Amino acid sequence: MGARAATAVDHVVYERDGVRHRVQGRVEVEAQDGGLLVMDRGGKLWTITAEEKQQHTTDEIPFAAHTPEEIGRTLLEELPDGFQVHTTAHYVILYDTSRSYARWCGTLLERLYGTFNNFWKRKGFELVEPELPMVAVVFAERENFRRYMQADIGRSSSIVGYYNLINNRVAMYDLTGVQRDRVAGQRERSRAEIDKILARPEAGMTVATIVHEATHQIAFNCGLQRRLADVPFWLSEGVAMYFETPNLASSGGWRGIGKINPSRLSRFRSYQSERGPDSLRELLRTDERLQNSEGVLEAYAESWALVHFLLKRYPDEFVEYMQMLSQKTPLVRSTPEERLEEFEQIFGNLDRLDREFVTQMRKLR
Q1: Is the pTM of this model over 0.85?
Q2: Using one digit for the tens of pLDDT, what is the confidence trace for 95-120?
Q3: Fewer Cβ close by (within 10 Å): the C or N end of the chain?
Q4: Which of 170, 199, 224 is the last residue of a domain?
């Protein structure tokens, strides 16, 4: 299986569950057996097995991702009535909230984008411009958001936002109650008022969730990670948690990146008393600890702690590790042993590192 550096448009016809489908886009990966991973012009990934594929042709027209205007028009057709489009330098935001809240979201996302890029540039990892605009869908009402989530990813929960790696979109709902105020006849809040509401301590975790999910989106669009590649879950989640501590009171920048995350540190400290000798090894070998409901909060806390430790103590090695992972081909899975070997080749003996990791986290204040 290998990645293809193609520029022409691929046309694929495939059959799934007795229904024929057509997709146009660019083949990202072609497997040895003929299976395909295709990205369409809107950024959605399509996985087509060799058995499903019926026809694959390529024309001479160069592949071009959708423009912001095309993305906006396409998504307005998919979403319920009442949505509008707000565009920024790197985002297309579909919203049925107040315009001031949509603009607040745009400012938040652009600030995160700039800070994320500057952070990695200072570390020595030069990111790339996204090939197409990143999409955020912002709902005024939580129930409408939950219905959309159910249709989009097949589940509905109490989360306030999420990133869909397949269609490359972030979805969220209004965290301020602005829409309810408008229904009640109150005037539309200004962006400054929205900032003030969401800077309150009690809003911290909800804003952190949005930042967390938006960080995933940026990472997968700027070359830090590749969608559907074998990026260890602990790393992807750990990096997102590293960025989820914004100080919204700072208008001149994004202070707080990499600062101690109190909830994650507290959870990890509680876990240390029962932490087994193979805890780190199992976190690195597979994604199971972060996917099983039992112990998942401890696994997330350890993922945050490990990323925090490595970035503070071994920043050059961490960047080298990230650069290695960014070159991985989508849909090619590493074995648990290969994951460990890749990690130890860069960071050294795992037992030694684990002892240092535990010692440093106990000192963290």
Answers
A1: yes
A2: 999 999 999 999 999 999 999 999 99
A3: C
A4: 224
